[in-house]
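#struct-help
A.M.: can someone run this one for me? Single chain, 429 residues.
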Amino acid sequence: MRYTAINRSFYIKNREKLAKELKPRSLAIFHSNDLMPTNADGTMKFRQNNDLFYFSGIDQEETVLLICPDFPNEAMREILFVRETNEHIAIWEGNKLTKTEAVEISGVNQIKWTSDYEGMLSQLMVYCDHVFLHTNEHRGASKEVETRNARFIKRIREVFPLHNYQRIAPIMEGLRAVKEQDEINQMQRACDITEKGFRRVLRFVKPGVKEYEIEAEFIHEFLRNGSRGFAYEPIIGSGENSCVLHYLENNKICNSGELILMDVGAEYGNYNADMTRTIPVNGRFNPRQKAVYEAVLRLKKEAVSMLRPGTVIQEYQKEVGKIMESELIGLGLLDRKEVRNQDPFNPLYRKYFMHGTSHHLGLDVHDIGPVYEPIKPGMVFTVEPGIYIREEKIGIRLENNYVIGQEENLDLMGNIPIELEEIEELMNA
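D.P.: on it. Structure tokens below:
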């Protein structure tokens, strides 16, 4: 295993938390993600289903977890199914988990081969009244590709049509939103690796480099420090590309006088970092760039102070918008009188700041978690304000990751350079 795994006690505790949320005579079913095809006989890199991983720590395809907390036979209350290996698989793909290894990772004592799944499922279904099934209910989820879970939902409802089927997603949103210390440790490791990549890039960038060369510097540092790579597709946009929110081509030459916006983060043990920094190609901000940079940084610091227990994200965003209006007026981008008379449902600041300031972070980069309920200690959020002036080819976004604390927030990226003077000093060292 490339990363240091969380102790199995974490996964045992998570399953205990789930059991308390289920109705009597319930069964919860979790499947691994599909191994997705590319073309011909190619496949994409496997990425485990995050809910299955949250309850088991198993990072292998064709895995299933059944949780039936009050089944009469105690040995069948938790059953983990893993793919059985053979000589052919070992030669072509390498060894798969043994039953003993699966126990050590997950803490589930009843390990079966995936080939035994159908028979064991039937035994549990005969006993259960309520069946909790996994669906991807993330607000931004794409539904174009039918998942393993979606196929299974169709099939089980045909075979067992009279059970009471329930959504597991609302329970998962509550459980995963508040992070345990083990999870925060993994995210801190992802942030520390991200820091190493950023410091490497500060030494590397100069006029004439290509955006994808910067991407290569990041991935080199990420991989050599135990990450499996980027937490998400990296955004490395210079000049006018710094104003494209989800710019992914990363193919332009970086010219002197331009800025480079870099939205990158390392993954570690399936947990994610999410950092954005904006730097000058030639190592020095010009006066206008400095003014915009300092406005974004001030706003970021204000936003962090507002992101506290009891805050509701929707209200927080409105307050951030008011501060942004003031900063944009100071930069000469908005007129104070026009702001007073603006449409409150379409505020003028959105021309220059058109995205949200914060989102949950964890196993998903845009992690599951409530957005209409008060923030709780232990939740982890990004703070990422930005100002994008397309007519001036200036796009500046700054982003750190924070654990919400009872007394104060913990900045997981507190060691990553962000102050303007430090950026310039490191680039010209």
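A.M.: thanks! DSSP finds 13 helices and 16 strands in the chain.
D.P.: also worth noting: The first helix runs from residue 8 to 21.
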